[in-house]
Design a protein that fits this description.
The protein has about 400 residues and is an alpha/beta fold. The chain has a domain at about 55-260: Spore Coat Polysaccharide Biosynthesis Protein SpsA, Chain A. The chain has helices at about 10-40, 65-75, 95-100, 120-125, 150-155, 180-200, 225-235, 260-280, 290-320, 325-345, 355-375, 390-395; strands at about 55-60, 85-90, 110, 135-140, 145, 160-170, 210-215, 240-250, 400. The termini are far apart.
Length: about 400
C-alpha cells in the first residue's frame, strides 16, 4: 500500500474543503450566534417622527395578486399624507396595469415601462418619479402586516443606518408541497442568520419583498443587477450599515415545484455574484470587517459550496486506498445516491422528508454551480417570470403563514 506520507497535498486539500463545508453549514451559524451575543450593537430606534415613504411595487403580469396587494398597501398603518404607492409595471401583458389604474383615485400611481427591460430598469424608471425620503421596495405578491412600514422606518432615526430589511415569511397551507416546505425551512434559517448578523454588525443584503433604503442611497442599476443585494452592498461601501427588523413582517408563497425554485435560485445567485464583483470594495476586510465576515461566510462560501463538494469527493476518491478516506468517499456517494433516488422517485419522494430535503440540498447546490457558470459566461438574463402558478395563487387565498396563525 502506498504510504500516507506520499499524499500530503491531497490530504491537505481534502481537509480544507471539508473544513470549509462544515464551517459554511455548521460553524458559521454557531460563530455568528456567539459574536452577536458578545459584540452586539445597542442602538435604540425612534418612532417620534415619521419620514415620508415611497412604496415601490415591482410587477410583471401580476393580475392574480395585484388587487390584494394594493388593498393591503392602502390599509397599512401609516399616515396617508406621508405614504405614496407606486406600481412599476415591466410592460405587463395582462390586466396588471388596469388593476393599478383602478386605484388611482386612492392615490396609487402606475409607472409603466414601454418595453420589457426587467425589474432593475423598472426601478431606474420608477424611483425618479417618487418623492419619499425613504424608499420601500416590494414585490406584488408580498402581503404586509399593518405595522410593517412603521417597523422598517423606525431604524432610520440612526444616521448610521442606510437600509432596513424586513421579515419575509413563506405561507403554510394544507397542500404544502415538498419544495415549498424545503424552502420554508431554508428561509427560517436565513431569517435567524439575518437577525444575528444585524445584531453583530450589518445584515448581508436586502429582500425584494420588503426592504427600505434612504432615498439618496439609491444608485441607478444595470439591467442584470439584483437590486436587493447590489444596493445594500453599495450602501455598505459608503460606510453605512444595514438592519434586519423581524417585526416588519410580510407573507408570500414559495414556488410550488422544485423546478421553479431551481430556476429562481439560478437567477438570484448569478446576479448576486455579479453584484459582489461590481461592488468589489466590500471584499476588502479593512473597510467594514464585520460585514465582510458575514458576506464571506453567509453568501460567498455558500455559493462556492458545490465546487467544494465536488472537490472533496474527487480528493477522497483519489485517497481511496486508505480506509478512513474510503469511508469519507462512501458517505458522500451515499448522500448523493439518496438525492438521485429522490429525483428518480419524483412525486413519491414527497412521502419522506429525508428524500425531499436531500433532493432540495443537492438541487440548490446544482443551481449555485449553474449560476457560477452563467456569471463566468456572461449569460445573465435581465428579465424574470413569476414562479407562482394559478394553483398556488388559489391556495394563497386560504393560506396561513409559516409559524403564525391567522
Amino acid at each position: 500500500m502506498t504510504p500516507l506520507a506520499e499524499f500530503p497535498v491531497l490530504e491537505t486539500l481534502l481537509w480544507v474543503c471539508l473544513a470549509l463545508i462544515a464551517y459554511t453549514y455548521l460553524g458559521y451559524p454557531v460563530l455568528i450566534s456567539l459574536l452577536a451575543r458578545c459584540f452586539s450593537h445597542h442602538a435604540v430606534p425612534s418612532t417620534e417622527s415619521l419620514p415620508s415613504i415611497s412604496l415601490i411595487i415591482s410587477a410583471f403580469n401580476e393580475e392574480s395578486v395585484m388587487e390584494e396587494k394594493l388593498l393591503n398597501s392602502l390599509a397599512l398603518d401609516y399616515p396617508s399624507a406621508l405614504l405614496e404607492i407606486i406600481v412599476v409595471s415591466d410592460c405587463s401583458e395582462d390586466k396588471t396595469d388596469d388593476i393599478a389604474k383602478s386605484f388611482s383615485e386612492a392615490g396609487v400611481r402606475l409607472v409603466r415601462q414601454g418595453k420589457r427591460l426587467g425589474k432593475s430598469c423598472g426601478l431606474n424608471f420608477g424611483v425618479p418619479s417618487s418623492s419619499g425620503t425613504i424608499l420601500v421596495f416590494s414585490d406584488a405578491n408580498a402581503i404586509y402586516e399593518r405595522d410593517a412600514l412603521r417597523q422598517l422606518t423606525k431604524h432610520f432615526s440612526d444616521p448610521a443606518v442606510g437600509y432596513v430589511v424586513g421579515n419575509a415569511r413563506y405561507r403554510r397551507h394544507a397542500g404544502l408541497t415538498p419544495s415549498a416546505e424545503s424552502e420554508g425551512l431554508y428561509w427560517r434559517l436565513e431569517s435567524w442568520l439575518k437577525q444575528k448578523e444585524s445584531a453583530f454588525g450589518s445584515v448581508v443584503g436586502g429582500d425584494g419583498a420588503i426592504y427600505a433604503i434612504r432615498r439618496e442611497m439609491f444608485t441607478p442599476l444595470r439591467p442584470t443587477d439584483i437590486n436587493d443585494l447590489l444596493n445594500p452592498l453599495q450602501i455598505i461601501a459608503r460606510g453605512y450599515r444595514g438592519i434586519y427588523e423581524p417585526a416588519a413582517v410580510c407573507y408570500e408563497d414559495a414556488g410550488d415545484s422544485f423546478q421553479k425554485e431551481f430556476r429562481r435560485k439560478v437567477r438570484i445567485i448569478s446576479r448576486s455574484i455579479s453584484a459582489v464583483f461590481r461592488e468589489y470594495k466590500v471584499l476588502f476586510p479593512w473597510n467594514q470587517f464585520r460585514h465582510w465576515l458575514c458576506l464571506i461566510s453567509h453568501k460567498i462560501l455558500r455559493w462556492l459550496a458545490p465546487v467544494l463538494l465536488i472537490a472533496s469527493l474527487i480528493f477522497s476518491l483519489l485517497l481511496w486506498h486508505f480506509w478512513f478516506y474510503r469511508m469519507v468517499a462512501l458517505a458522500q456517494l451515499g448522500f448523493y445516491a439518496l438525492g438521485v433516488a429522490a429525483w428518480i422517485l419524483g412525486p413519491l419522494r414527497s412521502s419522506s422528508r429525508i428524500f425531499y430535503l436531500t433532493y432540495y440540498f443537492c438541487l440548490m447546490n446544482v443551481a449555485s454551480l449553474l449560476a457560477i457558470v452563467k456569471f463566468l459566461t456572461g449569460s445573465i438574463a435581465p428579465t424574470w417570470e413569476t414562479i407562482r402558478g394559478s394553483e398556488s395563487v388559489t391556495q394563497e387565498r386560504s393560506a396561513s403563514p409559516v409559524g403564525r396563525k391567522l
